[in-house]
Write a structure and sequence with these properties.
Number of helices of chain B: 20
Structural class of chain B: mainly alpha
Helix content of chain B: over 70%
Order of helices and strands of chain A: HHEEHHHHHHHHHHHHHHHHHHHHH
Strand content of chain B: under 5%
Distance between the termini of chain A: 30 Å
Low-confidence stretches of chain B: none
Low-confidence stretches of chain A: none
Largest interface: A-B, 38 and 36 residues
Number of domains of chain B: 1
Radius of gyration of chain B: 21 Å
Mean pLDDT of chain B: 88
Strand order of the largest sheet of chain B: 1-2
Distance between the termini of chain B: 29 Å
Mean pLDDT of chain A: 86
Strand content of chain A: under 5%
Largest sheet of chain B: 2 strands, antiparallel
Strand order of the largest sheet of chain A: 1-2
Largest sheet of chain A: 2 strands, antiparallel
Structural class of chain A: mainly alpha
Oligomer: heterodimer
Number of helices of chain A: 23
Shape of chain A: globular
Helix content of chain A: over 70%
Amino acid sequence: MNGLPLLSLLIAIPLIAGVICLFVKAEGARWTALIATFLDFALSLYLWAQYDPDGPQWQFVEKAGLGGGVSWALGIDGIALLLIVLTAFLMPICIGASWRSIEKRVPEYMAYFLLMEALIMGSFAAQDLFLFYIFFEGGLIPMYFIIGIWGGAEKIKASYKFFLYTLAGSVLMLIAMLYMAGTAHTSSIPALMAYDFPREAQTFLFLAFLASFAVKLPMWPVHTWLPDAHVQAPTAGSVILAGVLLKLGGYGFIRFSLPMFPNGSAQFIPLMFVLSAIAVVYTSLVALVQRDMKKLVAYSSVAHMAFVTFGLFAMNRQGIEGAMLVMLGHGLVSGALFLCVGVVYDRLHTREIERYGGLSDNMPGYALLFMVFTMASVGLPGTSNFVGEFLSLVGTYHASTWAAIAATFGIILGAAYMLYLYWRICFGTLRHADAAAMKDLSPREWWLLAPIALAVFWMGIYPESFMRPMRNDVGRLLVRMERVAPAGDSAPRPSKGAAHAEHAEHGATH
Amino acid sequence: MGRFAPLLPELILSMGATILMMVAAFTGRRGSALVSWSAVILLLVATAALVGAPSHAGPVFDGLVTEDLFASFGRAIIYPASAVAIIAAHGWFERGTEHASEYSVLILFAAVGMGVMVSASSLVALYVGLELQSLAAYVLASYRRTDERSAEAGLKYFVLGALASGILLYGISLLYGFTGTMSFNGLAAAFARGTPSLGLLFGLVFVLAGLAFKASAVPFHMWTPDVYEGAPTPVTLFFGSAPKAAAVLLATRLCVEGLAPATDAWRQIVIFAALASVFLGAVAAYGQTNIKRLLAYSSINNVGFALIGLAAGGARGASSVLFYMAVYVVMTLGAFLCVLWMRDEQGRPVESISSLSGLAQTRPGFAAAFAIFMFSLAGIPPLFGFWPKLVVFQAAIASGYVALAVAGILGTVIGAYYYLKIIKVMYMDEPGAPYARVREPVQGLLILLAALIVSPLGYLLIGPLSDLTDRAAGSLF
């Protein structure tokens, strides 16, 4: 925009800092990583401030050809902007969370985290199909190392599972991308978002992209890598996995599947709704019986991501905006919940829920913040997840009553497993002497959790700040899909024409 | 001299090799450094001589060989790779009883043979080039005479290689018998005359089988793991890089130039060989504990991907093969140079994968380079090894072979497992006995250079390299 390639800078800062980390000692690496992630966060806030919601769809655009049909093309719309801000916000927190809990091979650890930040930023900012794929797949490498080197007892198995599962999902997407670039004679994402592929091709293209994003998001039944990866990863790894990496799947649906293959997407709405419905009910029930805190939060992630797919495939404004807000809200809340698990894990070195209890007595500060995030996860009004889940449910209801009913079960069950978890950890008597001896939050931990709590409330009380940047982009997406959006079975329909008018009005008033 | 100008690189190499052989014979062990560095310089001079006349001279010696950009591109891969193979042997043979200097001479002769292979446009030149390369290679495989494994590797390679040469010759005689010509253009004209007769088809199959042996494509790959394991590591490095590229390029020229009208006949063979190589290379590597054996299967796997590009056919397919082989050679050289540096505390070479454990903690730079080569061979972005695979699949899809591309790409996922295994051993296992440091600054520099090329920085090469491969492939048509 103003001459400085801001998005390239956003990618370059963590990358350069990552290289520096390899050449300094542990303490230096920690500070390098912290400063770099803060710089990136500041830059992302600047982008947010400079972003003009009423301006052109793509802003901060950069483009440089690399030859061979790929170009270094970057640019963001409101949707990508919000996810970039979320990533940049969570990264310093991740570094802080690893400050003392990671003691071995610190420089390497920080380097992988910074590399991952660069790759995630690149995925959100990429405007070239293959550039996106390179960033998207590249993210596997640092995460593989983070799980495999600093993970728990079963780390090797979890890291393999994570890597191969995600890779297998993604390669089919690559074939689809090659086909798209060959058919449309361009690999530019904005151009492809306006390109109409033949109907029958859309079916296969959608399925190929689904294979990748469904694994990444993850959707039932390809979610099984997630609990393993989460449980074995170090706390900060879980935070970034749940907070940002899963969002790449949802972002993929918004950026690729829906606008590029509207017919293909519409064709599979029933499939998506059924998978989401199973996910939301089944994984919630599974979460209910977990004995491991991290596993419980991991399964809750799968359930929450089902709200994203519900909302997206409702194909109306409420649904898509709701899905985006669920992604942002879940990014904050699940990240915070993993941090909360990490706080007690650092003290007692176990994630068994049984080993805790009554922590509200000796750790009141912890209990307070943990409660805030529990309530946010449940979707209490006034917190971030309420807005997203409510909108997503409204959108789903417009599209299909049955899907909305299934999704609502998710909220009830969500309340059940989260409150049950909170009760078992924080209430009751202090059963175990070692748990009773744990100290309350240190100032560092306050600094990690309090900003997230503030953001959760901000998003819950004044969501407009987050909805404003993406409003026009969601509108553009809806224009792409209006031919194929499901009519829905919930609106009162005196005649077909009136139902359409009602539908359009809903779109206009929000 | 005018007539011979297009053959300047070959002349430089063969004359130089003859002289160096004399030098080697008379100086013995004392002259080995002199001979090897002279050989490296000769190869670099020959590479430099490629610029200019040879790249557009067209058919020379009555069409026996064709000096075009395709041939020059091939030699621009082969000569530097051979030079690396010579440098890789520094400090390797001096410890044994062998004469180190003859090694360089043999590599030079093999390089001449490979140069003829990639420029051959008649079956005679094809065979002569192939045999010149193979004979040097048989000797190289058994170079360490006192080592039983090396002798076994050489013998195995020779017996099976002779068989393959026989098959190839039989195919050539069939082709010649049914068409009355040896030149690729003549063959193309004969095949264009209508449905090829059974004899022609048999000839085609036998020739392709012979070439598949040289490129170690399934089902003619059996010799590869044994020879790679048994041969001295610098020789394995050589086998994995230049001869492989030469064989694949030779097959490409033969298929798209000489057998173009019979595309439907050879395409199914190539598709089978490609997929079989990809999957067998990926699956058979699982249980390996020896790094050289594992890389042998990796090379089988990689030839499969290059053949997918060949199966796609056309200028685009040929271009993707060139792109693939160029990057593949860099990755392989890098990986084997790393293997070369695996030495135990006494400086003896070790080859077991488990000895790499915890390398990231004892030798972080070495481990990082090795990991880059492994991720790159696996084709994981953002490493540059991803791009040639993409180019190959792109060519396949552009020709309408989507199912082939899908099958191939699933092969990359299966193959990713064993590359990850090496990385896991280096990064996630507890450190074992540390390796001895190898004091070979030139080799270190080469590892660094190769790692930089296959790192994400390599993407900057896409523009010039794809431009060059497009033009080189275009010169075939």
